[in-house]
Amino acid sequence: xxxxxxxxxxxxxxxxxxxxxxxxxxxxxxxxxxxxxxxxxxxxxxxxxxxxxxxxxxxxxxxxxxxxxxxxxxxxxxxxxxxxxxxxxxxxxxxxxxxxxxxxxxxxxxxxxxxxxxxxxxxxxxxxxxxxxxxxxxxxxxxxxxxxxxxxxxxxxxxxxxxxxxxxxxxxxxxxxxxxxxxxxxxxxxxxxxxxxxxxxxxxxxxxxxxxxxxxxxxxxxxxxxxxxxxxxxxxxxxxxxxxxxxxxxxxxxxxxxxxxxxxxxxxxxxxxxxxxxxxxxxxxxxxxxxxxxxxxxxxxxxxxxxxxxxxxxxxxxxxxxxxxxxxxxxxxxxxxxxxxxxxxxxxxxxxxxxxxxxxxxxxxxxxxxxxxxxxxxxxxxxxxxxxxxxxxxxxxxxxxxxxxxxxxxxxxxxxxxxxxxxxxxxxxxxxxxxxxxxxxxxxxxxxxxxxxxxxxxxxxxxxxxxxxxxxxxxxxxxxxxxxxxxxxxxxxxxxxxxxxxxxxxxxxxxxxxxxxxxxxxxxxxxxxxxxxxxxxxxxxxxxxxxxxxxxxxxxxxxxxxxxxxxxxxxxxxxxxxxxxxxxxxxxxxxxxxxxxxxxxxxxxxxxxxxxxxxxxxxxxxxxxxxxxxxxxxxxxxxxxxxxxxxxxxxxxxxxxxxxxxxxxxxxxxxxxxxxxxxxxxxxxxxxxxxxxxxxxxxxxxxxxxxxxxxxxxxxxxxxxxxxxxxxxxxxxxxxxxxxxxxxxxxxxxxxxxxxxxxxxxxxxxxxxxxxxxxxxxxxxxxxxxxxxxx
Length: 791
Fold this sequence. Notes:
By secondary structure, the chain is of the alpha+beta class. It has 21 helices and 22 strands.
């Protein structure tokens, strides 16, 4: 202590005296540091892990399917300029029968070479071994599916392969770059119990599907600086005569698209949340220093009079700011790292990587610290410059008395009802310092906004579930056929046990174009008067499918720059690759995917293959579910089953788990902000007005009446902050909804009244606790010491 300069000793005394306010500011700063580290660290963890895993397993850049293409095409594909590696394979959907699980699971059979590793999309072996060549009863399964059922190498299960039920023995547990996010047909989130990816040797699948010397899927990797468009065009030309359905790049691969959407959300979090906390912390620093300097005018004057320079005094207050900021950075870094590890563990449940380590690179912490220091110094700049500008003679004199004007015309009843003089005193102080009042009100409004921004997700998810599963896709299950069938298939479906109603649909992959704009989509065609699977207009009302033309979802129409009445070019991706120009007859509303809808007769005419159906939506008697499941497992024509009720509950549970974690964090942060703002404001006002309040006690006013002056000021600002917080919260929520929007799904902006109410109640409760803490200090004012203090 003896080695410290006089200003440094003063700094320590000031921090000791203001420790509660300093800690409140540091905690707000820590919130900003924590969210910044959390968002950036998680983004890096996912991005870097993805890059490393994709490189190690040689994940494909271009993908394409065909009906049946000969392996002799492989040299021609490899010869395309820009192609570095080619892997051809056999891929088919299957139904999986798991012992003890009544509902059927859906799987994807994928071939691997009889010898060696695939040139593209290599497997990462977690345990066991890959199937041996020539063994048609061996398979490797992805880890998520194996873990969901407790499978280990040596266990077995049954699958329906091309109409024949076969028992497969598991030889290995694998990870695949194509199925980092393994999601089954009809699901919105992964359901590891009901969807599995199975790898078998090529020879085993060639015999099962009559694909000797042929393939139905190809993956390519590209050399650096390759022209992907040129490669896809040449690949489509080669596969066209073999039932090619059109190539697509990695961005349209479902697994990678979902991973990209998560990265978009994390980046949105990093852009929206941390600036809120940094702004509040800058505001609090400014508020504390401004009022501290006002209280230390005489000391500043003495320091200047004895020879301390403006720079020394400015550095003294800047050091106070940096010390508080340093505490916030340390707390935020520790909390951000701990929560980051938890987030990495959570992501490990959804994304199947061999490892996923939260990024703790030094630059992440350096960036967070620098941003925090700069924000705090920016907030302190005005207060510090005010201290520097004070001439010694002026600083050593008390400040000029505040000039008050008569409030409410000098009457106590300006609102039509009696108002005490103490209340007028409180309101007059608010009016006299409008900027201070406005900033404190804004600081209190921000935690309200933060809570609304996190809680609105519950309202939005409820709206999504209501729209997707109860207004649009109202079926109990969706059956998809292994190949397109005639109209007679719907009668067979209607005859399955427990089926109450069945509606056919046809799905056709297509490319939609408008000038240079294009999108690959699935056109879903229903009967014009369908009642189970419905299409909704922009007001979420069901509409009948028009006899001609196409309906596009609002986002898809925006991508293609189309409006109702415009013409859109449709190129089907089936073997005929037929093209047609059809009118856009309407725009629909959908929260999931890029949707294109037509009436079934219209799509049949466009395809030119007669009346065909791809599957059926069914309503089921719950009492006969087990009988239905057993029948489906014995039906070779059915390739996959999507169970709407199971999918809905899985979606709700997954989303609510994620939101629940976020809400817990944000409620804690909102409480910290509220206490930081209200407590600091009240403590500083108490420091400034201690003599005035002590005088009121001497005049005979009770502790309750005296503290009521300060509590009234705080109460007015807190009440005014609520509608402002609602308005800001809606704006923040809109930014978050826009930031999270992707081609896979979008979050509707829905904020119910109870969300506003709950957000306000949490903040009002925190404000009340802060006020009561300060009220206790008022009750214990040392009247003699305070009144002896010079103004």
